[in-house]
Specification:
Length: 271
């Protein structure tokens, strides 16, 4: 599933569409994770795209008439193409612009979403419950320490809870915990303030490094321009079961936490 860096890379790739006017909306497959609203042709045509922002793993496209919430799901991509490029089998949704370009949602598994959020997307049910952005100043070690005092679940699952902090998905949780030298199974409320400060710093650093590398291209992800990301070449632990730790040489282990594979070094990340 595309995580925060991949979604942000996608958003940045769509920025050239800002200021363009919608010429046509095409819905080829309305049955996504939620049905695509059938009024978008009337609501968006002749309206200008004013802003592209991101909240967690959601892209918010604000037009003169209101905002769309876009989610890539498990396998989705938003592509920026010329409108004469013919749609493929899994191309379910298009917004054509008067300058001859199209924003196209390609999603083989159809877990993505195109939702109408009206004039105030922050109040939408999907966005109003989200925690702070991990790259924002409010997300600090002190803040994290205060929020997890009563949480006995393992820290890996806690930092993946979007109600606590958004966008720290499976890949970047494993990588951040390794960088912070914290075992993924450690109970969240057993972390001291110094550990929380170290973990927050490494979450920010890991996400920043992933953004610089264009995200991680695993299976389905490519940016809006069709280019892959390269952060997977820098992984310390994720997907490296049995391979030597890049720091100490100990074989990387994998376990299942919250029904997700988790990767760690038993020497660098002692419980």
């Amino acid at each position: 599933m595309p995580e925060l860096p991949e979604v942000e890379v996608t958003r940045r790739g769509l920025v050239p569409l800002l200021g363009q006017v919608v010429a046509q909306v095409i819905v080829r497959q309305p049955s996504m994770r939620w049905p695509i609203p059938d009024h978008l042709q009337q609501t968006l045509v002749d309206k200008k795209l004013l802003e592209l922002s991101r909240r967690g793993k959601y892209i918010i496209a604000r037009f003169e008439s209101g905002a769309l919430i876009l989610h890539l799901g498990m396998s989705g991509r938003l592509c920026l193409l010329q409108c004469d490029i013919q749609p493929e089998k899994h191309d379910h949704f298009d917004i054509h612009f008067t300058d001859g370009r199209v924003m196209r949602l390609r999603d083989p598994r159809r877990f993505g979403a195109v939702l109408w959020a009206g004039l105030d997307p922050a109040t939408h049910a999907l966005l109003s419950v989200l925690g702070p952005e991990p790259l924002d100043d409010v997300f600090t070690g002190t803040w994290l320490y205060s929020q997890i005092r009563t949480r006995s679940s393992c820290i890996k699952n806690v930092i993946m809870d979007s109600h606590l902090v958004v966008g720290v998905g499976n890949i970047y949780a494993s990588e951040s915990l390794f960088r912070a030298r914290i075992h993924p199974e450690k109970a969240a409320n057993q972390l001291g303030l110094p550990e929380c400060e170290r973990l927050v710093a490494e979450i920010k650093a890991t996400l920043h490094d992933a953004l610089q590398a264009g995200g991680s291209s695993l299976r389905d992800f490519f940016g809006a321009d069709g280019n892959p990301g390269y952060f997977q070449q820098e992984y310390f632990v994720y997907g490296r079961t049995g391979q030597p730790c890049k720091i100490c040489g100990t074989p990387i282990l994998s376990i299942r936490l919250g029904q997700r594979s988790t990767f760690y070094c038993p020497h660098c990340q002692k419980r």
